[in-house]
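Researcher: I need the complex structure. Ligand is zinc ion. Inputs:
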Amino acid sequence: MQKAVKDMYDRGAMGVILTRWKFTRYAINPCRPRRDASPRTLPRFAGTWVGPMTEPLRPEPDVKDWTWTLRERCPQCGFAAGEIRAADVPSIVEDVVARFGERLGAEDARRRPAPATWSPTEYACHIRDVCTVFDGRLLEMLAEDDPQFANWNQDDTAIEKRYWAQQPDQVRTELAEAAAQINETIRSVRPSQLDRPGRRSDGSVFTVESLVQYFAHDLVHHAYDIGT
Ligand code: NI
Ligand SMILES: [Zn+2]
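Model: Output:
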């Protein structure tokens, strides 16, 4: 393969049609032809369907501190995490999981809306893993005094687990399982445990209640991200 094309792959072109252009040059075209593409620019020789074999573009790493969403209503998704009670969260989680479940059934569930934006399936992988990580943190807070959580890098996880290559049906099942697990933990919390503390490795301090609120916002926000 021509080096320039290989480089494009390495940078993360996803779902492309490799085209040999007049036998001398290669081009990478998006799967969906541009509406304004004139017929003269179309390649003469359509090549091989390649699919998302290689790592697509990495989204901008999420390095923002989202703890402000505990104090203010999120201007994007409209969720006011600080105003909900932990006991409300399981039904919010179930609602988000149902919305994702439906979205994962669509034929474009693995399609990215933009090269560096996660597809619905990738977002579903993310919230599945968020459920598992936050369940672990909650269990630590309930069992230990003021635990410090292990750092979790969500962007590295997405790459290590190859979110882009995961199957929507399987992700739907895994998401439902992970959500049921954390909901069980949240439902087990007694009122006297809501103030138990825990700390993230970046220094942010949570209580059981604020961690559950923070978790709920993450899920609701990602339902907003996939447009449901
Ligand atoms: Ni998130
Ligand atoms: Zn939000």
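Model: Summary of the prediction. Confidence is low (pLDDT under 50) at residues 12-51.
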